[in-house]
Design goal:
Layout: E1 4-11, E2 14-20, E3 26-36, H1 42-52, H2 62-71, E4 76-84, E5 87-97, H3 108-121, H4 132-148, H5 153-165, H6 179-183, H7 187-200, E6 203-209, H8 213-223, E7 246-252, E8 257-264, H9 274-285, H10 291-299, E9 305-311, E10 316-323, H11 328-343, H12 349-366, H13 370-382, H14 389-397, H15 401-408, E11 412-421, H16 424-431
Parallel strand pairs: 2-6, 7-11
Antiparallel strand pairs: 1-2, 3-5, 3-6, 4-5, 8-10, 8-11, 9-10
Helix pairs in contact: 1-4, 1-7, 3-8, 9-12, 9-15, 10-11, 11-15, 12-14
Length: 432
């Protein structure tokens, strides 16, 4: 059964989305607070979810909370930070077995939905502050997470590309924030920020599965009765192209160089051409059928990996590759050659057909997981598109090769970022 989304306005700034589907034996409820991504509060938001997940006024610690969840047939609770463009989303989620699979008097969905709101609105507070032991413990964990970002050089090289391309913009702020900001947070300061998040953030509530949606509506109306948040989501500023290609090279303690490239597309999800851009990206570098995989990696052996992805809310496309430093020039030239080939219309029927089918299959697979399904529709809300999965599949299937070639003509290279190892002299100097 195709999922059907119904949206209810609880009040201005608070929306309830019911993704009705019989696909799952569980029901999930998500509560999402939208914050403008800024360097001033990124770390506060990241720390806030870690502290709030530790317990509330009723369940004072992880153990008590875990026992209660287990009593509800192994219900699940989590809190996390999501990032969609320059929208940093403070998210809380619960999931439990659907009521029609348990005795009628259990009311599992109502209990976990109530727990969700309690975890957010009834935290453990002492003298206007969060528990100091929880805050200090989670500060250590968050600092460790921030410092660990650099360990995955493949993803870190792409992050450094984006930081350089979008320097001075919110898009260059990491969703976990930075170490110094974390260290400066006190239990009192974090609670003051919590009050701001609760009262000043647009909110989306998502319910996925089959349940009594009127019951969820009543709970939401009660909890948000005295809260009047703004109605508009944070907006992501479209990337502004440079006058010419820029190059950045940085040295790290690595053996395999990382060649990353950034391109301007100027197309975001609310643009009618976005479906054609998705197909373009798939043909170029998204999968084993792509040009980057087959030419740069397989045919010429110039890269250990080579792929592309869309920074969908910013109007960018980025390419990631792992190379031997001696192949840097050849790899770069071949990547650009494949981009130029697409501008000339050098796209085989196989590349086009497999790319369309790959995207459609990936979209359809989202319907097999309630978390993925919720995240898809959350993204639709943020981008103000509200396109169903079925409609999105239809749009992809309707894309023509001519539309993809037209997109190819719009792609503009902006930055080439190289992460290389220290040269021998520099390494010897560091070891002295």
């Amino acid at each position: 059964m195709e999922a059907v989304q119904e949206t209810y306005m609880i009040k201005p700034g608070v929306r309830l989305h019911y993704i009705k589907t019989s696909q799952f034996k569980t029901v999930s409820v998500g509560l999402h607070f939208h914050r403008q991504l800024t360097c001033e509060e990124a770390s506060k938001n990241a720390l806030l979810v870690d502290v709030l997940r530790r317990g509330n006024a009723r369940f004072m610690d992880d153990a008590a909370l875990g026992r209660y969840l287990q009593s509800l047939y192994g219900a699940y609770f989590d809190a996390d930070i999501r990032r969609k463009g320059e929208d940093q989303i403070v998210s809380f989620m619960v999931s439990t077995v659907a009521d029609h699979f348990v005795p009628a008097d259990e009311k599992c969905v109502e209990k976990v939905a109530g727990l969700l709101f309690d975890m957010v609105f009834s935290p453990q507070i002492t003298d206007g502050a969060f528990r100091s032991d929880y805050v200090e413990q989670e500060k250590v964990n968050l600092i460790n997470d921030i410092e660990a970002v650099i360990n995955d050089k493949r993803s870190y090289a792409l992050w450094r590309l984006i930081e350089n391309m979008c320097a001075g913009e919110p898009y260059a702020v990491h969703e976990l924030g930075d170490v110094e900001s974390v260290r400066a947070i006190t239990p009192q300061l974090l609670y003051q920020h919590y009050e701001k998040v609760i009262s000043e953030s647009p909110v989306d509530i998502f319910v996925t599965g089959e349940t009594d949606i009127d019951m969820i509506r009543r709970l939401a109306e009660e909890r948000f009765y005295a809260i009047n948040p703004p109605g508009e989501y944070p907006r992501t500023a479209l990337y502004r192209p440079r006058e010419q290609l820029e190059r950045v090279t940085e040295s790290y303690d690595i053996s395999q160089a990382k060649l990353s490239m950034g391109f301007y597309t100027g197309i975001t999800p609310d643009d009618p051409r976005y479906s054609a851009l998705m197909v373009y990206n798939s043909i170029l570098g998204s999968g084993a059928h792509s040009k980057l995989f087959n030419h740069v990696r397989e045919k010429l052996s110039l890269a250990y990996y080579a792929s592309s992805r869309l920074e969908r809310y910013k109007g960018l496309m980025v390419i990631a590759s792992g190379i031997e430093l001696k192949n840097r020039q050849l790899a770069e030239e071949e990547i650009f050659a494949q981009i130029e080939a697409m501008k000339r219309g050098d796209i085989s029927d196989y590349e086009f057909d497999v790319s369309v089918k790959s995207i459609v299959n990936s979209l359809r697979s989202l319907g097999d997981n309630n978390s993925y399904l919720e995240d898809y529709y959350l993204g639709q809300a943020v981008s103000r598109t509200n396109i169903s999965l079925a409609a999105q599949c239809e749009r992809i299937a309707a894309v023509t090769p001519e539309e993809v070639i037209e997109i190819a003509g719009l792609i503009k290279p902006e930055m080439v970022y190289l992460m290389k190892g220290h040269d021998r002299k520099e390494a010897e100097s560091c070891n002295l």
